[in-house]
Request: fold
Amino acid sequence: MSFLLGLTGSIGMGKSTAAMMFQDLGLPIWDADSTVHALYGPSGEGAKQISLLVPRAVTAVGVDRKILKVEMAKDQTLLKRIEGVIHPLVTANRAAFIAGQTADILVFDIPLLFETNAQDQFGAVAVVSTDAVTQRGRVLARGGMDLGTFEMVLEKQLPDAEKRERADFIIDSSTLEAARADVADIVATIRERVTHA
Reply:
């Protein structure tokens, strides 16, 4: 049976880069954001379900998140109802991913892993982290991102210090070299553990 490693980190911490480093070592990655993106696409099952709840939020190209946000602001119960249809689809997708893999370690890239209380579903959790100045610089360098939006996203996420405290492993993403070394150490440590289990 594969070892399931949760991978998380706040915005701008370098989680996607760390995920690619695990992939470079031959480990399969399940990406929560990509899964939701596909579900919200034009032929996605999530789009079909949302069209039943908010018909005007689904267009020829899938779910229009802007319209969805407007509707959520009007109806306080809508978010919970959407989660009620999307979460089971995400869970089913993840289960299918696990069933289709033979690798000894599977990595699950989940931005809100601690926020959604999903840590118990994994054998260990790795948090990608760097200092606040580097984090802010990375985020503000992205197109379409400003300080206000960045701060709003941060408010929805657990503080980095708390994530680090709850993690089994920490990946220092200050430099690519440091991150790569931490990723290799994590894989070696897990393999060592599994061998002696």
Observations:
- The mean pLDDT is 93.
